[in-house]
Write a structure and sequence with these properties.
The complex is a heterodimer of chains A (391) and B (306).
Chain A (H helix, E strand, L loop, with lengths): L1 E5 L1 H14 L4 E6 L4 E6 L5 E7 L6 E3 L8 E4 H7 L3 H7 E9 L4 E8 L4 E7 L1 E2 L4 E2 L8 E5 L1 H9 L7 E6 L3 E6 L4 H4 L4 E7 L5 E4 L3 E6 H14 L3 E5 L6 E7 L2 E7 L4 H6 L7 H4 L14 H14 L7 H31 L11 E2 L33
Antiparallel strand pairs in A: 1-5, 1-7, 2-3, 2-6, 3-4, 4-20, 6-10, 7-8, 8-9, 11-21, 12-16, 12-18, 13-14, 13-17, 14-15, 18-19, 19-20
Helix pairs in contact in A: 1-2, 1-6, 4-6
Chain B lengths: L1 E6 L2 H17 L3 E5 L3 E6 L9 E7 L6 E5 L8 E5 L1 H9 L6 E8 L3 E9 L7 E8 L1 E2 L18 E4 L3 H12 L4 E6 L5 E6 L4 E6 L14 H4 L7 E6 H9 L7 E7 L3 E7 L3 E8 L3 H8 L2 H11 L2
Antiparallel strand pairs in B: 1-5, 1-7, 2-3, 2-6, 3-4, 4-18, 6-10, 7-8, 8-9, 11-16, 12-13, 12-15, 13-14, 16-17, 17-18
Helix pairs in contact in B: 1-2, 3-5
The chains are: A alpha+beta (391), B alpha+beta (306).
Chain lengths: 391, 306
């Protein structure tokens, strides 16, 4: 493979790499005659991302001699080639990518201003092809919007929020953070954002309902979408079926496939007002009379009257919980860094259904979103075969 | 118990957000007291907080267009809540250009302070965002723990130099020591000092002016002092830095009362907000522990031992 990327397209490529690096650790490269595919999958196989660049994206593009060639490399190394996105735009004029399959080497040559030449030689590994099985067309719900809208939506959630639930009705869509445990609900802030269908370029809802998926990968896609300014489509239907976020342009196609929480875990996590949102999404409870918390008050006041000198049960737990909160807060401060690191390593929620990835022989027409109905066993890429045989 | 307030002015919203941000920089949890006229953010003197206490008072009429409150009873028409100001600060941050903002007490899965904002959108229909912030309702029996602190019987009261200047000085001193001595006299002079085994640094301010307090009682000690006699307090530099770093509301008046070897009492006044902050004297024991040179010896010998 030998290709040349010039001008603004260098930044597009670089942003794509950065966006992929938010998801997986390995970058899967597959140069084909009609497109260059960059793919990745996260460690728990609950998220898959794919960028397809067609030959006109490049100033010059020639694929491999062998049409079935694929390889992978650590994404961090590729990211290092395009370290600073802002300086890249100013400094780099052209980027040449050459593949030497005999030497297992991928070479990035950055032609910078003032005749400066930066060459990065990365070693590559042979691997099976990585392919998620999904079908955008079969999804009953399609929402398409300018990236700005979704970026602004995501901004309402602090970075500590891992999962978001999206519920749709015929007129509105509602994003809310997903809180796992019953116990955590009393500590976590619940944020809910309701958007009108009118804000979307396309708003097709065939199956009103709610799906829950990880926000991290969506942030990754939005990073790319925001920089490219391309509208983002959200394809989904029922819980447990993947959400597909996609971007399409004449020379570029991007698909992010994210697992969603399955129906049964949704049911466990139902709490009183969780369905309220899509039943009545347009209404903010505005009436003053409904906002009261009289029952809490009654509990407390009676305890005060009844207790006198004796023990007063409702207040003791309160004190205890406050103490716990403080203890938690102080220990959090100290261990924050460790925890963060741990979280990075920890694979996303086990409850997410893994996507099915085919380890398959590449066919001549390998459409990305081709569903493999004929193939019964869909194993992941060869390296993780044993681990993932249960899927 | 009911509470609902509405804000439509962007200026008020920004101002309120800055106040809450300031509070969230000072403490992880605090008590919000709501009365028909005022909002109070309070932190009472607890060892867990390093003995720091805070009292911030805002007049609701200057912020809210609607303010409805039904307290515990007619004679105790107030509500006390414990909350994490950080949550509130985050919620307000996402509502920065809201067309209107509502704050109300709601009963969700637990008692919540709900911040609901109507945000502008590209279409004719607004975006609606709500944040349910969990709170603890404080029963009336415990209200007595939260009383407005009285102005201590200080030795010297002095106006502070611009807080930004002070912040720059304290930020640099923080790299050298974890204790700071603030001293001032009735001649308008104030010094910020650090003293360690290796270095002593002090920054001198003069012509700051001393506020005159009409209340004679609190000036008992102050009156008898010679103008040039310094009163000082040694405090945790981090606590002072927190106060200075968190200052997003530019106060029209900032002053400090020093109770010699006991505490610093800061008063920051804005036209509609007042913030009081108390930092106690660094406990003597810890000073001794800090000054022993063992620490240095130990760290030095680690390298030499085989």
């Amino acid at each position: 493979m030998d290709c040349m990327v010039t001008g603004g397209h260098v930044k597009v490529l670089a942003t794509a790499i950065h966006s992929l690096s938010r998801i997986g650790e390995d970058l899967y490269l597959q140069p084909q005659e009609d497109e260059l595919a960059l793919r990745t999958v996260n460690s728990s196989h609950s998220a898959y991302a794919c960028f397809l660049f067609s030959p006109p994206f490049f100033q010059q593009y020639s694929s491999c001699k062998s049409p079935t060639f694929h390889c992978k490399m650590a994404i961090k190394c590729v990211q290092a080639v395009f370290r600073s996105l802002s300086s890249l735009e100013k400094m780099v004029e052209r980027c040449r990518i050459q593949l030497n399959s005999e030497k297992s080497r991928l070479t990035f040559t950055l032609h910078c201003k003032h005749g400066l030449l930066k060459t990065h030689n990365l070693s590559i590994q042979d691997c099976e092809s990585l392919q998620a099985v999904f079908n955008k067309e079969s999804c009953a719900n399609v929402l398409r919007a300018q990236p700005r809208l979704l970026v602004e939506t995501v901004l309402h959630f602090p970075t500590s929020v891992e999962e978001v639930s999206v519920s749709v009705s015929s007129e509105r869509v509602c994003f809310r953070n997903h809180v796992e445990e019953e116990a955590e609900q009393s500590k976590a802030v619940l944020t809910e954002l309701s958007l009108s269908a009118k804000e979307f370029e396309q708003f097709t809802v065939g199956c009103p309902g709610r799906v829950t998926f990880c926000l991290k990968e969506m942030r990754g896609l939005l990073m790319f979408a925001e920089s490219s300014g391309l509208p983002v489509s959200l394809h989904f239907d029922e819980p447990g079926r993947p959400v597909i976020l996609s971007l399409t342009e004449s020379v570029l196609e991007v698909n992010f496939v994210l697992a969603t929480l399955s129906e049964d875990s949704h049911l466990c996590n139902h709490f009183n007002n969780s369905t309220e949102c899509h039943q009545n999404p347009a209404l903010l409870p505005d009436d003053f009379m409904n906002d009261d918390i009289d029952s809490y008050l009654i509990a407390m006041e009676t305890s005060e009257l009844a207790s006198g000198g004796s023990g007063c049960p409702p207040t003791l737990p309160r004190k205890a919980s406050m103490g716990q909160l403080r203890a938690r807060a102080s220990s959090e401060g100290e261990e924050e860094e460790e925890e963060e690191e741990e979280e990075m390593r920890r694979p996303p929620n086990e409850k997410f259904r893994s996507l099915f990835f085919g380890s398959m022989l590449p066919t001549s027409s390998q459409a990305t979103n081709q569903t493999l109905r004929t193939q019964e066993v869909l194993a992941s890429d060869s390296e993780n075969e044993e681990e993932d045989s249960s899927f | 118990m009911k509470f609902r307030a509405k804000m439509v002015d962007v200026g008020c919203l920004n101002h309120f957000t800055r106040v809450v941000n300031t509070i969230s920089k000072l403490t992880k949890t605090c008590t919000l007291r709501l009365t028909t006229d005022n909002l109070f953010f309070m932190l009472s003197d607890k060892v867990a907080n390093g003995g720091v206490s805070m009292w911030c008072e805002l007049s609701q009429a200057n912020f809210f267009d609607e303010f409805q409150l039904e307290g515990v009873s007619a004679e105790a028409n107030e509500i006390y809540l414990e909350l994490q100001p950080e949550y509130m600060s985050r919620a307000l941050k996402t509502a920065q250009n809201a067309k209107s903002l509502k704050i109300k007490l709601t009963k969700k899965h637990c008692p919540c302070l709900t911040v609901a904002a109507e945000l502008p959108s590209v279409s004719s229909v607004s975006r609606l965002v709500t944040h349910d912030i969990p709170v603890d309702v404080i029963p009336r029996r415990l209200w007595q723990d939260f009383k407005e602190p009285s102005v201590p019987d200080f030795d010297v009261s002095i106006y502070l130099p611009p807080l930004k200047t002070m912040k720059n000085v304290v930020d640099r001193m923080k790299n050298l020591s974890n204790q700071l001595v603030v001293e001032a006299n009735r001649n308008g002079e104030m010094n910020l000092k650090i003293e360690t085994d290796l270095v002593s640094v002090s920054t001198h301010f003069k012509d700051l002016g001393n506020p005159t307090w009409s209340d004679d009682a609190s000036q008992g000690q102050s009156q008898g002092r010679a103008p040039e006699a310094m009163a000082h307090a040694r405090v945790d530099i981090k606590k002072l830095q927190q106060l200075l770093a968190g200052q997003q509301v530019n106060p029209s008046k900032a002053m400090c009362n020093i109770v010699n070897k006991r505490m610093l009492h800061f008063i920051l006044l804005h036209e509609d907000v007042s913030l009081q902050y108390f930092i106690p004297q660094w406990p003597e024991k810890r000073i001794l522990g800090y000054k022993t040179p063992e620490k240095h010896l130990n760290s030095g010998s680690v390298g030499r031992k085989p």
